[in-house]
TrEMBL record:
<feature type="binding site">
    <location>
        <position position="67"/>
    </location>
    <ligand>
        <name>[4Fe-4S] cluster</name>
    </ligand>
</feature>
<feature type="binding site">
    <location>
        <position position="171"/>
    </location>
    <ligand>
        <name>S-adenosyl-L-methionine 2</name>
    </ligand>
</feature>
<feature type="binding site">
    <location>
        <begin position="112"/>
        <end position="113"/>
    </location>
    <ligand>
        <name>S-adenosyl-L-methionine 2</name>
    </ligand>
</feature>
<comment type="subunit">
    <text>Monomer.</text>
</comment>
<feature type="binding site">
    <location>
        <position position="208"/>
    </location>
    <ligand>
        <name>S-adenosyl-L-methionine 2</name>
    </ligand>
</feature>
<dbReference type="GO" id="GO:0051539">
    <property type="term" value="F:4 iron, 4 sulfur cluster binding"/>
</dbReference>
<dbReference type="GO" id="GO:0051989">
    <property type="term" value="F:coproporphyrinogen dehydrogenase activity"/>
</dbReference>
<keyword id="KW-0004">4Fe-4S</keyword>
<dbReference type="InterPro" id="IPR058240">
    <property type="entry name" value="rSAM_sf"/>
</dbReference>
<keyword id="KW-0949">S-adenosyl-L-methionine</keyword>
<dbReference type="InterPro" id="IPR006638">
    <property type="entry name" value="Elp3/MiaA/NifB-like_rSAM"/>
</dbReference>
<comment type="similarity">
    <text>Belongs to the anaerobic coproporphyrinogen-III oxidase family.</text>
</comment>
<dbReference type="GO" id="GO:0006782">
    <property type="term" value="P:protoporphyrinogen IX biosynthetic process"/>
</dbReference>
<feature type="binding site">
    <location>
        <position position="60"/>
    </location>
    <ligand>
        <name>[4Fe-4S] cluster</name>
    </ligand>
</feature>
<comment type="function">
    <text>Involved in the heme biosynthesis. Catalyzes the anaerobic oxidative decarboxylation of propionate groups of rings A and B of coproporphyrinogen III to yield the vinyl groups in protoporphyrinogen IX.</text>
</comment>
<feature type="binding site">
    <location>
        <position position="54"/>
    </location>
    <ligand>
        <name>S-adenosyl-L-methionine 1</name>
    </ligand>
</feature>
<feature type="domain" description="Radical SAM core">
    <location>
        <begin position="45"/>
        <end position="280"/>
    </location>
</feature>
């Protein structure tokens, strides 16, 4: 049994570590990758293969204070209409380089708030995307939905366009917490949005909630999770609130003295986790829960669970293209990120260029280390046979890497002939353990709390 003093000694309550939605992580991207290289990577996609597409909509009607996403507030439709035009032009640029016969395994609209598009804009955007890359067999089309910023007409448009997974932002149901994080959203508003989504035959629903919010207590967490469970989501993302006011300026409105300590964050996570497990959800990686028949659960059991910029996924496509300001693409050759500012992104696309402003070209052991970290984040284990099959490394060198990780954690991990295993009681340390396989200097990246 591992107890808090031991976790404290191992540094869990002081550490700042990445969430490893990519490796190397975004703060390590550099200028090695630009629009020409991005275009070449698109051209190199295998004809007839299946890829994923992420569409970023960096606008919201309200700007929640806790939010660290790249988005800007707007009360009018003008910037949104202009932005959809830019997305269409960017998609045309893609079309000019994309090999023939490529289809989508996943289409995700995220943000920001994609549901602030009016129904006509939604239809226009969906038609434009699918005219260039159609959805493949069994494809998933998911959309991030703000329950406060959606209605019947917009949900009709999304359902008609083929949305088959909705992802709603909940964060927390407690009134005082909602006031402190600048996001008011009643239970009824959330429930009505979910009812409307389900009435339209959308088969799968994800909800995002947060632990580690100001004024959150175990009792309040319990109540929020129970309210969420009453809505029967198929999947839940239980993210740790990342308080990074130096990066996300609007978080300066959140009083840091109302934040739980790292020790309390661990308790809050554990409180929510127990409720999901009690209600028969499966635990997926470090921060997701899913019903027994959800795709993530099947992927976990089959060893096919993957990690990408949206968190966990069962998508097997090796290429993910991100369109829109700040979006990141992943290729077998490396990562490419679009210009973060909408203005710079718009200018590049209007000039007929991709806006790629930085990225990372895979070299040396990057792909090996990316897989070791992904395996830990998804499966809490590294399977030596799989690594030796897919990567150029000897069993001895790999075991030495495991051993170094185990030494750094007082022998809490299990190293066997089969691989490295993080036992259940040490799983709070997973991001820190993953970091021991990260070869980049993390000291200047400004990451959030390890728990
Ligand atoms: C959809 C919302 C979010 C996305 N990532 C985060 C949220 C809330 C959280 C997040 N991402 C980063 C940090 C800070 C460092 C850390 O704790 O690891 C936080 C709190 C790092 C980060 N992720 C992306 C980038 C470019 C960075 C570096 C910092 C920066 O430039 O802001 C990529 C990225 N993450 C998300 C999106 C939509 C995205 C790029 C399009 C989701
Ligand atoms: C897309 C999802 O990202 C999560 N999200 C937004 N901001 C933060 C933050 N600072 N820390 C953790 N998660 C965050 C929300 O849960 C949202 O629904
Ligand atoms: S949480 Fe959603 S609605 Fe709120 S600011 Fe962030 S992206 Fe916008």
């Amino acid at each position: 049994m591992i107890v808090k003093p031991q976790l404290a000694k191992l540094g869990l309550f002081d550490a700042k570590v990445p969430r490893y939605t990519s490796y190397p992580t975004a703060p390590h991207f550099n200028n090695d990758v630009g629009p020409d290289m991005f275009g070449d990577w698109i051209s190199a996609i295998r004809p007839g293969s299946s890829i994923s597409l992420y569409v970023h909509v960096p606008f919201c009607r309200r700007l929640c204070w806790f939010c660290a996403c790249r988005t800007q507030g707007t009360q009018t439709d003008n910037p949104v209409i202009a932005y959809v035009d830019v997305l269409k032009a960017e998609l045309d640029l893609l079309a000019s380089r994309l090999p023939s016969g490529v289809t989508l395994s996943r289409l995700h609209w995220g943000g920001g708030t994609p549901t602030l598009l009016n129904p006509d804009l939604m239809r226009e955007l969906a038609a434009h995307i699918l005219g260039i890359v159609p959805l493949g067999h069994n494809a998933e089309f998911s959309v991030e939905i703000d329950p406060n910023e959606v209605d019947a007409a917009r949900l009709d448009a999304l359902a008609e366009a083929g949305m088959n997974r909705a992802s709603i932002g909940v964060q927390d149901f407690d009134d005082e917490i909602q006031k402190t994080i600048g996001r008011i959203q009643s239970y009824d508003t959330t429930r009505e949005a979910i009812d409307m989504i389900r009435e339209r035959g959308v088969p799968s629903l994800n909800a995002d909630i947060l632990y580690g919010l100001p004024h959150q207590t175990k009792a309040r967490m319990t109540e929020s999770v129970q309210k969420l469970l009453s809505l029967n989501p198929d999947r839940v993302a239980l993210y740790g609130y990342a308080h990074v006011p130096w990066m996300a300026k609007r978080q300066q409105l959140i009083p840091s003295d109302a934040l739980p300590t790292p020790e309390q964050r661990l308790d809050l996570f554990d409180t929510a986790r127990r409720l999901f497990l009690w209600d028969n959800y499966e635990e997926i990686g470090i921060d997701h829960f899913a019903t027994r028949d959800d795709g993530l659960t099947h992927a976990l059991k089959a060893g096919r669970l993957k990690r990408n910029f949206q968190g966990y996924t069962d998508d097997q496509a090796e290429v993910l293209i991100g369109v829109g300001a700040s979006s990141i693409s992943r290729f077998p050759q490396g990562y490419a990120q679009n210009a973060p500012a909408t203005s710079a992104h718009t200018k590049a696309v209007r000039d007929g260029r991709f806006s790629t402003s930085r990225g990372h070209l895979f070299k040396d052991q990057d792909i090996l280390r990316a897989r070791l970290i992904e395996a830990l984040m998804c499966d809490f284990r590294i399977d030596t046979a799989e690594i030796l099959r897919d990567h150029d490394i000897s069993a001895a060198k790999l075991t030495a890497m495991y051993q170094r990780a185990n030494d750094a954690f007082d022998g809490l991990l299990q190293v066997t002939d089969d691989g490295l295993f993080i036992p259940p009681e040490a799983r709070a340390l997973t991001r820190m353990i993953a970091r021991t396989f990260d070869a980049y200097d993390l000291s200047k990246a400004g990451h959030s709390s390890a728990i």
